[in-house]
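@channel sequence for tomorrow's demo:
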Amino acid sequence: METASCSAAAAGNGDVGSQRDRSLVPERLQRREQERQLEVERRKQKRQNQEVEEEKSDFFAAAFARERAAVEELLEGGESVEQLEEAAARLQGLQKLLNDSVLFLAAYELRQGQEAMARLQAALADRRQQLQPKKRFAFKTRRKDAASATKVDCAAPGAPAAEGIQASSPPLKGEGGFGSSWVCGFSNLKSQVLEKRAEELHQQDVLLTELSNCKIRLYGNPNTLRLTKARSCTVLCGPVSTSVFLEDCSECVLAVVCQQLRVHTTRDTRIFLQVTSRAIVEDCSGIQFAPYTWSYPGIDKDFEGSGLDRSKNNWDDVDDFNWLARGVASPNWSILPEGERIIQWD
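C-alpha cells (generated this afternoon):
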C-alpha cells in the first residue's frame, strides 16, 4: 500500500515537472522571439543611420565642391581688394561647413577637405601679397643689410620695422598647405625670449622655424601659424583665425586657439588647445593635449576678431592618421593629467 502511494506520488511529481517544463517552453520561445525582434530592429536602425550619414556625406561633398569652385574663381580673377575680401568671407563659410561636418565624415574625407582648405588659404595669401604695393628698390651698404637682418617687419610693406625685435625668417616657400609668403615670425634663434604684439600680428601668416630653447609670446589674432623644426620651445599664442601646423618639433609646449590643428612628425610635445574642428596628428609620438588656459589683456577682442566660436572646443577629439583601429585608443597621443597642466615660463 505504501509502495503504491509512493508510486502515485512519484507519478504526480512527474506530472508536475512535465507541466513546468511545458510552461517554460513558451517563455523560452517568447524570449527568443523578443531577442530576434530586437536584433532586427537594431540592424534596421543601423541601416537607416548609415543611409542618413551617406546622405549627409553626399550633401557635404556637393556643397563643398560648389563653394570651393566659387572661391577658386574669385581668387583666379581677383584683381581688387574687394574680390579678395569676398573670397576670404566665403572661405570662412567653407571652413564652417567643414567644421560642422566632422562628426559624420570619414577620416579620408576630412583629410581631403582640410587639405583643400589649406590650398585655398595659401592661394588667398599669395593673391593678397601680389596686390600689396611693392617696396621701392634702393642700394644699401652691406653693414646696413646686416643690421636690417636682425629686425622683422610684421606690418604692411613700406612701414618701418619695429625697433629691437628679433630676426624673422625670410619669405619661404610654403609646404603643407600654407602660404608661400611669410611676413612675420622668428627663425634660427637659441635661448631667446621673443614677443609679438597684437598690432604686429593682426591677420598675418606667422612662421616660427629652427628655434631652440626659446620662449615666444604671440599676442593678437594671426591668420595662420606654422611652427617647424623647434626644439624645447614654449609658444603661447592668441586666437588664430584659420590653421595651425606643427612639423618636426620635439619637447615643445604650445598654447593656441584655432579652427584646425595639424601635427606632423612631432614628438614629446604638450599642446594646450582650443579648436573648433578635430585636431589631426600624423607620424607623431608622445603628444599630450589639454584645454587652452592662456589669457592676457585684450584676448576677448582678439577672439571677436578671429571669428572663432569661443563656446566650441574639441581639444580632446583627435584623429591619428596612423591609427585606424576603432575602439582602441591611439598610443601616439594622450590627455595630459590635470595635475600636470601647468605651463612653465620663468
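heads up for whoever presents: Residues 2-77 form the longest helix (76 residues).
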